[in-house]
Here is the input.
Amino acid sequence: MTGTRAIYSQLVRELFERLPHAGDLGPGAGTAVHGEAMALDRGAWVRFDARIEDGRVVDCSFRAWGCPHTLAAAALIASRLHGEGIGNEAAFDALRLARELGAPAEKLGRLLVVEDALSGMLARAHALQ
Amino acid sequence: MTTAAPIYLDHAATAPLDPQVAAAICECLRDPGLQGNAASVHAPGRAAAVRVEQARAQVARLVGAEPGSIVFTSGATESVNLAILGAARAAGANLHHLVTARTEHRAALDACRQLEREGFAVSWLATGSDGSADPAQVASALRPGTALVSLMHANNETGVINDIAAVGQLCLERGVTFHVDAAQSAGKLPIDVQAMNVALLSFCAHKLGGPKGIGALYVRHRPRPALQPLQFGGGHERGLRAGSLATHQIVGFGVACELALTRLADDAARVRALRERLWAGLQAAAPVERNGGTEPGLPGILNVRFPGIEGESLLLSLDGRLAASSGSACSSASAEPSYVLRALGLSDLAAQASLRLSLGRATTGEEVDRAAALLVASVNRLRALLPAGAIERIA
Here is the structure.
């Protein structure tokens, strides 16, 4: 149980501490969509839920099992998607997440699970348009 | 602003230095009359040698041995290496077989792997789901060419205790050298090397309130096992361990052994009660499982598993507030699940969801209660994030 400060960036530690948008969607108007991906052998399982109204993400949440980098990545995406217009949302691939979070290369497999869950949700959101 | 020290539940990794031991070490370091080399014949050397021999007697008493059968080393890892490598290499030309268990400490496993590279055959015993090595398995693994059986008294991750006396009797009857790694059990469980028919026994100071950097190997007098030294450069320690003796470390080890022996029964009862109090407190984080069963076990070790919890996230949740050991080899991103827990039949995911909590003499009831509350809060927070059905899938 030593060395965790060296392993995790400040951003990962902050996101892990607060885990913004973790849990379920709150009540509200709009159409709910979700995306889910799981790879237990890689150590990650992520589900995103969002409510879409007038082409915008009015609410977004996540549930996840995984390492701190996985949870931080899911929290980061859910925070950034909030208020975004569908079609204009920022691209969040595993490489970008790894760079932004300062994740080591061996975490890429888990971040790909986060990317897959997000892609699934966005595909459903795009289909609504 | 001061930051509260983490609750220390990692006594199986190392125990805090007992204040009486620290005082004895400091007194030894300060005393100008004790600065001689214990191997020298002049007065300061002889004074140091007297203190070394006093300590040797204290260390020997802890395991029911004669003082002259104790060889001082740098720690349990060196003792285990000296015992396994030394006994195997010194065995006769027709004795090229060893028996050990897959759940041994890395010190023993790696020494046995080295012997495999040198041409020895090793029987690696699988343990039962409780983690103990069955003496009947040992019996069936013995061959005419078996040089050595090496088993740990108590497992460092689960606290599970092996039936050393039964294996000792078996080895005595078959004329096989028996080495016991007692790094975790010395000072925690009663040990009588003669009653247990042990030929070689490894232990160290820092697991029982002594300093790091000093250990011992008990080497039976009669029949004396063949043993080849690993290092050369003098006739110290009956020619088995060359090098000037660290008087202050040895003095500290002696005091730690004496304290451990005096307090053994009381400490065991108190620490066992605290362990059960911790286990009871963790029930608020159900489901929670106990790895390695309950008894017989070391009083201070509780290895627990929280289904649905990812080990790395649990460790970060506890970071700075609780010092414990995970079910992984380390806390790095590429941590391998514990081979001990996997040998017990746990999946990689279950091993990674495990935590070793080890209590000791210095642990208080208040610390145990705080640790339980902290763990329950951390586990429940992480479980609240799980996708539906995750606990069942990630058991």
